[in-house]
Amino acid sequence: MAKDWASTLVELLTSPVSLVTDVVDVLMDTPVHERFSNSIKTDVFQDSHLRDLERVGTDRKLRPGTILRVGRTGFWHYGVYIGGDETVHFTSEESDTSEDNRVMRTNMSKFLGDAEEFQTLRFPKKVCGRRVYNGKETCARAIEKIGLGDYSFLGNNCQHFAVWCKSGVAISGQTVVVNGGESDSPVYRARIEASTSAMGLLGWVKVPDLIGVFGIEVSRTLFASNYLP
Asked: Rounded to whole angstroms, how far apart are CA atoms 178 and 171?
């Protein structure tokens, strides 16, 4: 959708109103997707140039092969959206960091948990010199590895897997570990074993995600309650 400078000007002039409504919504504990200021951003100011700067997604549609991340306590959880309200990700019945984790195909509600919003990632044309796969290829790579185990929080986690599906390189910007790419079998061979007690050290602070070092960045933030599969 073409950006409109008139919409940008209106947004700038009315920004104080948005600030006030933000405060009111927080005090009233209004759900994120029902907040007045967010409705303005997605409905009234969707043509504004400022929307690009703030990365507020107006397109609620998810496309197969998109890499997703959702906030958990202390870390980001990653997965591959494959269409039909389904995601392939490293998880288990108990948690996303269990020793029993394996690559599973689940519905989006399992992936999102109780999160109110989640994010999509934008990849450059190449990551670490490797060509980035298109959506169809990314889905095929993710589905092929369903059932894979050998989970390791530091060396073989959900982010390693999701980024590998898209780029062929197993990268985790949260643990700053790169485990190579396609030459490693079956996906990549993790050499670092993580202690589950390490999660206790994270507490409520989310570890930094240095994924941007590899040219990968957040593309959109979507509300969990109103995205379109």
From this structure: 5
